[in-house]
Design goal:
It is elongated and about 40 Å long. With about 110 residues, it is an alpha/beta fold. α1 (about 20-30) packs parallel to α3 (about 70-85). The protein starts with 5 loop residues before the first strand and ends with a strand. It has helices at about 20-30, 35-45, 70-85, and strands at about 5-10, 55-65, 90, 100-105, 110. The chain has a five-stranded mixed beta sheet. It has three helices and five strands.
C-alpha cells in the first residue's frame, strides 16, 4: 500500500546550485512530517507484526528526465528530509519496516 507523502517542483532550487533539485526534495520531505505521521499508523495497522516505533525505512529512488543528480541522490535527499522531520527514523536496505519511494520525473518529485 502506498500513501502520497509529499510532492514538489524541482525548479524551486536556486540557480547555480550544483545539486539543483536535491534541496527541493530534502525540503519537501522535511515539510511532510504531518503526512508521514498519518501514513505510518495506517501502515502499522495493516502490518501488526511490526513495531509501532521507531520506524526503519528503506528509501528507493526512481528518476526520469535530465537531471544533474542520480536516483540514489534523490532517495538520499528524501530520506535526509524525513529524518529531519522525524529524528527517531532510521534507514536500512536490509531490515526495514516500510519503503519510501522518491520518484523524479522531469521537473516534479513525489514521495510515496
Amino acid at each position: 500500500v502506498y500513501a502520497r507523502i509529499a510532492d514538489c517542483h524541482l525548479t524551486d532550487a536556486p540557480r547555480g546550485d550544483g545539486n539543483r533539485g536535491l534541496e527541493s526534495i530534502r525540503a519537501a520531505a522535511a515539510a511532510a512530517k504531518d503526512a508521514w505521521m498519518r501514513a505510518m499508523p495506517l501502515w502499522q495497522a495493516m502490518n501488526a507484526s511490526r513495531p509501532a516505533a521507531p520506524y526503519v525505512v528503506r528509501a528507493v529512488g526512481k528518476r526520469g528526465g535530465r537531471h544533474s543528480f542520480s536516483s540514489d541522490d534523490a532517495k538520499r535527499a528524501a530520506l535526509a528530509g524525513l529524518k529531519s522531520a522525524d529524528p527517531a527514523l532510521t534507514g536500512s536496505t536490509s531490515s526495514y519496516d516500510a519503503v519510501v519511494l522518491a520518484q523524479v520525473h522531469d521537473n516534479r518529485c513525489w514521495f510515496d
